Structures are given as structure tokens and as C-alpha cells.
Amino acid sequence: MGRLALALVLLTAAAHPGAAPLRVEQVAPGVYVHIGQHRDFEDGYDGDIANIGFVVGQEAVAVIDTGGSYAVGMALKDAIHAVTRLPIRYVINTHGHPDHIFGNAAYLDANAGMRPRFIGHAMLPAALAVRSDGYLRKLKQQLGSAADNSTLISPNETVQDRLTLDLGGRKLELRAWPKAHTNNDLTVFDAAGGTLWTGDLLFIERTPSVDGDVTGWLAAMDGLKGVPARWTIPGHGPVTLDKNAALDRQRAYLTALVHDVRAGIRSGSGMSETMATAAAAERGRWQLFDVVNRRNVNVLYPALEWE
After folding, report:
1. Who contacts 73 (Cβ-Cβ below 8 Å, separation ≥6)?
2. Which of 27, 112, 207, 218 is the most buried (most CB within 10 A)?
């Protein structure tokens, strides 16, 4: 976030000394973001790689993504309590990838009458049901005891198309997208703050990761261009004041990736050979390129073979 003149608040997990403190940036009045690290799942992953945060209204708080473990989710909750004592009314998940959703469990220990509503895309419960065992097994391998208390909490309220949430004098507009980065992508637009939370429909600096349908993703990016946001909070990378330029940068990568994978298939190159060449011109423009780009080819190659 170094490109923006932002208020930086260092908040410690005072109520839970075992949790790591989170650095939270106030990007607009009442809008706080923790910027995740650029680490790969297979190299030094600690559950803290996604952008997560919260929005404060006059009556309540909405959390937008909760991080990759119970400990990260708890540290975020402590950050919220350092800013406001208003109740946390909503926990919103932009999609079901583990780095964005495992922290949900930290919000279950509220008093029974004060538990937040967990909200996600209409396809999110099914996606979590299919992947939950594998995700939890992998998290325990990656984090060991730091994964304690982490579990996947499915939404108890879903969004088929659009939903408006009221925080008191501040409304959040939620939109469910057709299959794109995943089949359960949800965005959050805070008109009062002029902020758009894209989840992983937008990556900045970190190589975009393919887990859905690239054609649908490109179409969703066209839709995001029409959202009148001043600040845009991507799923990974710094907050930007130039959303459309960031979308164009991401489009260039995804377009090159698909073009080169198709070219490799047409020429008879195998998947391994294509991994070494696809989108090579983009290598110097993205962090974690070599590892993420190879995984992207692994997803796209078999799908595009059958076009």
C-alpha cells in the first residue's frame, strides 16, 4: 500500500496474546484492510497471504474475508475491537479458497444472541463441502499446531445475484458472479466509502491463480470496470486508486496464458513443455510467477485440449 497516502494503524492482539498482531490500514473512513504477504502455499505459508478487513457503520461491523487460519481470524477480530466496540453483524466471504475463509471459526465464540451472519455466494456451500476435508488436511500439514481450532464455516445466508446489507448509515452491495476465478466469487461495494472489495477477481503484483473459468473471469473483469469505486481492494496486493489499469494488467497476463497454452496444444507440445513457455513474456511483471504460472497451465492445459 506504499503508493497511497494512508493512515497506518498497528493493532496488537491484546485480548489474545498468542495471536500475531495485524497491521491494518485505514483506506477510507471506516474501512480497514490488512494486506497479506506474497508467499506461496508450498513455501513458508502461515495463513496470512490474503487481503482481509472490515467496514464500520454507525450500528455494526462487517468483516470481509477472515484469513487462512483461526489464529489469523482471531487477530483480525482483535484489530476490530481495537477500533470499535460495535457488534460484528456480518462475516462475508468473497470465495471459498482456504487463505480467505479458515479464519471464520474465530467468529463463532460470540454470545449466542450476538453471532454474526455468515454470508457467501450461493455456490459456496457446495464448493466447501467438496473441498473441506482436503483443505483442512493440507492446512494441518502446512501449519502444524498453528492450525488448531481452524475449521471451515459454511455461510448460513447466500447470495444468488445481489444483496444489500445495512451497517447503520452505511450499506454494502454484494454481487455474486458467474463462474470466473472460482464458481463462487462475490464482490462487496461500499458506496459510502467508495471502496470495492474484489476478492480474487483481481490480483495486483501476485500472479493471478486460475481455479475456475478464464473466459468467465475476463467477462467479470469487464463488469468490475463499471463499478464506480475510488479505492479498490484486491484479493492480493496493494489497494489501488486505478482499478481499471490493474484489471488491464491482469487481463494481459490471462490472455497471454490462454493464447500460449492453446499454441502449445496445437503444436503438439506436452504439458511440461508448455509450463516452461506459457506467458513467459509476463514473468518479470508478477511475483511468484514460476510456481503459480505452472499450476495455472496444469489447470488450463487439459481443459483447453478438449475445445
Report:
1. 66, 67, 102, 103, 104, 105, 106, 107
2. 207
Residue type, 162: R
| CB distance 113 to 16 below 8 Å | no
* Spatial contact of 266 and 16, defined as CB atoms under 8 Å apart: no
In this structure, the number of other CB atoms found within 10 A of the CB of residue 302 comes to: 11
Closest CA to 238 of 16, 25, 46: 25
- Tens digit of each residue's pLDDT (9 = 90 or more) over 152-173: 999 999 999 999 999 999 999 9
Model pTM? 0.92
Residue showing cell 450499506: 171
Q: Which amino acid is at 267?
A: S
> How many other CB atoms are there within 10 angstroms of residue 205's CB atom?
15
Query: Exposed, middle or buried, 252 (CB in 10 Å: 0-12/13-18/19+)?
Result: middle
Q: What is the C-alpha to C-alpha distance for residues 272 and 266, in angstroms, rounded to an integer?
A: 15
Cell of 158: 447466500
Beta bridge partners of 187: 175
Cα–Cα distance for residue pair 191/166, rounded to 1 Å: 12
Phi, psi for 9 (deg, rounded to 5) = -115, 120
Q: Please tell me the distance from the alpha carbon of residue 195 to that of residue 215, in angstroms, as a whole number.
A: 26
Cα dihedral 79, 83, 89, 92 sign: negative
Tens of pLDDT, residues 103-152: 999 998 655 555 799 999 999 999 999 998 999 899 898 989 988 988 89
| Contact status, residue 154 vs residue 129, Cβ threshold 8 Å | yes
Select from 15, 35, 18 the least CA-distant residue to 237: 35
Residue 165: how many CB atoms within 10 A of its CB? 22
Enter the C-alpha cell of residue 272: 511440461
DSSP string for residues in 113-150 = GGPPEEEEETTHHHHHHHHHHHHHHHHHHHHGGGGTT-
